[in-house]
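Recap quiz, item 2
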Amino acid sequence: MIKFKVNPLPQHNFYDSEIELVDRIFYKQQQKKVGFYRRMFDEDFSRLFHHSNNRSSNLFNISSNDDEFMKTLFGNIHNRRTTHQIDEIILELVTDIAQSLIWYGKAYYLLQQDVDTNKIHTISFSSQGVISFFGKYIQWVPRRRKRHNDQLLPREIRVLDSKKVMRFDMPIPIKHMLSEQNRTLAVLDQHQYSEIKFLTQAQGDSPSSINYFNFSEWNDIQELALYRATKDTGWNCRKYDSSKRSDFFDCHRLIRFRRNQLTLRDQILNQLSNELSRVGKVYNPKFSINISSSDELPSIAFLNELEVRLEREDVSFDDIIDYCNRR
Amino acid sequence: MKDRLKVWGGSKSWFWKLRKFAGSISFAYEKNAYKSRVSFTKSKASAHILGSFTLTGVKSLLGVIFFLAVLISAENYIRSNFPFFLPLLSTDDKKFNIEQLRLYAQLLTAIFSIYFATIGIIISAGYTKLRRDIILMLTNEQVGSIYSRVLVLAAMFCLTASALPMFKYEPSLFVYVTGTFLTLFSALALFPLGQRLFNFFDLNQLINSEIILKITNDIAGVVNTKNSISLANHHSKQAQRSLEQFSYINECVISNHAGLKNNLPALTDSYMYLLLHYLQMKHGIDQDSYWFPRKNSHQQWFLAGDTVTSIAINTRSQQPLIKDKVDHQWIENEIISKLTGHIDLAFQVGDLDLALKLIIRFSDRISVYTTQFQFEIGMQELKKIKEIIELAFSSSNAVTDNEISKMKITIADTWAALGSNLCLETLRQIMTFDGELKKFFEIDEWNKQSLRRLPPFLQIELDFIVKRIEFEYEVEGARQSKPKYLQQLTVQILLQNYTRILPVICDFYQNLIPDFVHTLKKQEMTEAATQVVLASLHSHWKLPSWLGEINELIERYKEYEFYAEDHYKLPEINVLEMIQQLNSASESAIYSLSDVAMVGHIFQPHLSDESPDHFGQIYFEIAEECMNALEKNDVNKLDKIFPMLMKLAVIAADLRFVDPNLQVNDKYRFHLISTVINDLASILGFSILYGEYFDNEKLSEHVLNEFESFITKVSDKQKYLKRMLLLSDIRSISWSASPRSLIRTKWQQSFENRARNDGFEGYMGFGNAKQHKNKIVRVFLQSHSDASHLFFAVQIIPQIDVIDFNIDHNITDLARYLLEDEDEV
């Protein structure tokens, strides 16, 4: 069944849906179990803004030619936290987008007009099964059951109203970097506890069985692979106790990690401005908006400067750590 | 990609089997290389002996050949001239030659069996005394030596030669000749063989020729960086075994008390050679090498770190929390316990001479200890020696034997001198090492190879830096740690070491020496105690300035403090406080010198120049210290030490220099007595003067009372005072210089300089200066008088009833001025 200009299915519940072979073309098989290191990395990397208790109101520079409309746009974004400050809303939005970018590589939002109240809502929907095709967005919905009465609904193809869909992509360089790293992390996660296999049990015929396994060597291989894989992203692997790492090593990694995060943040903000300007034109043909990070947030330029100063031994480690841990 | 493959491979068992296989192949290769190397060194040594042996053999053979040539030419001469004298060589003769060869063979085998039998008899005689492996080593050394091998070779050669006819083969003349030569050669070998046989149980020789050689080989094997871990482990085991054999032999040798006088120094020398050799090679050994034995140490769960605890809890095992602790000092500790044991033994058998000889050998170790920054080992050894000495002195009965007591003094003195030497040399090393460190920083290379240039303790402590940099290369492909950071870490570790060393040095002078002195005093060895104190005064003089320099050095090191984070802070060393402590230690040393209970022996007449003159040194020291106390306005100190000076001066003036046994001419005798009286009078005069100058009556009060109480006890006071006055004026007798006039002039100038600096003019002034408010000071500064004159004028003149003799006009003038009213002057 093909439906045109309808709303997408907002949240899939995959346990209710019955994915068949045909659906597999559009549905990437999702890993049920997320790896240990991968999970930690995703968590750390998606935390683009460090937590802070004092809520600041000018984290972003927002310039728009229709402030009223902008406020209605942001007023009804469905976020996890309820807040009315636009900066906090944008912050939450960017964090959400970043999370789904890191996990799915894409993020989709839809502007939805409530017919009764005539309010505009911005809702997110899953990127699973969404295909973009010459500027059109098509959502493939598999067979699924209704929850309350167990009625089987048929397979659908929903062609979405592309004027109201906002789409966010992972920047290409970061995508490449992450996929390279995640491949190694996946291998590492797969073999994380494989040393237990080598703990041989004494058996009747061989009370002292020979074991060629060398734990320290195995550990070194794992560690080296982990650190080499995370070289470009600069992730610290949540290992804070290794005596092998000098402060320079840590600081360089921290700067690199933070810089990647900031690149992602700025790209998302950039895409957000473009997409908002585009979808806003449905309601106000001249609408345009531009969002960028303000000086209260750390900047890439300053991080680059810090890196150069660190090379020259011109800055203390505490300064670097403090700056990187700003919001 | 490579990493992913490796991680994947790491989860397969064939990967580990393959690794193990590759490892065993390389190990087999290394094993063979090692074996061939060992046999090569052995054969090299044998070839060396053979070479020298052949040389001596050839030398003596030349003589034999010459002799033979003479004989043969004589024979030829006889043959040609008188042919009927000698028959031609017939088949019988050839037969005879073979017979002869057979005889040689028999002879040689007989010698050999006798040799073995002798060894057997000797061994059976001493078999029960020694351990099996030592006997094995002894016989190996005997039978395996190149001499006995020559013997065997010759015997074999002759045997085969005599067996040749059996195979229808005539031994030619050459074979005969060679056989003869070899037999001759073995005859030569008999002498060294027999010589060694007589010293079969000389274990000292075994130590030097076998054990030390083995251990040094093992050390060289470990230092060689190409060798693998297992080989290093093997060397460590071998060295431990050899050391254990060494200590067994040590036990064997010292259990026989008869030969200790020769055996102990030899043993000490062997151990010391080993220690010094090892300390010089030690920095070449990899810090993680299995050369250093491991001990288990258990980490605490909460402190062990996240990775370790997570591994441990995943496997529910204690194993990850066990860390190997490396014992870097095992050989040193072993050897030092043996060395101090030797000293102890020498004391136990009551041979002080031997003990002294052994203690003095410590001085050879000092230079190595200091250059390698092994101060703690040295100090540990010194403390042990101190305990041994104290124990030995307390257990030996109070002997009145002059020789023995002298010996004891020398031993005590030597110990203190060695300790001072170690401390001072260490301080010097701290200062010179600064230059090396600067060079190291300039090169800015941080790897295992470059660290070898540093002292061993820094190599151990800086190991983590090297590991970090290697890790950076591995992961990031470049060195990230920058020089300033590394330099700060290095300096931090260095200063941490200094914070350990410097207080120990301070403690040595502050506690260890006074403690030692105290023990000696308790054992009524006051002379030894005094000697130790007097000998330490030089170090007390030296130390403050040296420590001052080190303070500057440490201040300079603060330049390296670049990162202000807490855990990079350089440790604070309060050198100035140490200097203070040392000064107070030096004060108390002086106080102990003015303690009669301690220095009682100096009141006995002493005219020998075999031992240091305590009387004179104490007199000079205390006089100087009295002046110091006066200049610092230190009443307390002056009151403490002046009585001793007073006693010494009186003894010198009234007894010692008057004694006719003192063989000096009369004029000089007068000089001596006069100088002592002048010293006493000067110090009393200065006490009056400084007392008035500082407006501190107490400064002179006690001192003058001391003098008064003495003078009232003298039987004829007037006569004594007159003698003092007359003798003080030595110019009336002689114009030659008084023995201590330079010192007194210095005192005088010091006072005048002080007055001038404070703005009070002397007689050379131009009148534009201040006038001191005190009359005595004013008058003294205006006059040309000495402080002694002041004392006589103020204290003595009023007490003399009738002046019927000539008094120095300086004294009388001064007395008059003081009586006069100020304005009339």
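The mean pLDDT of chain A is 82.
DSSP finds eight helices and twelve strands in chain A.
End of item.
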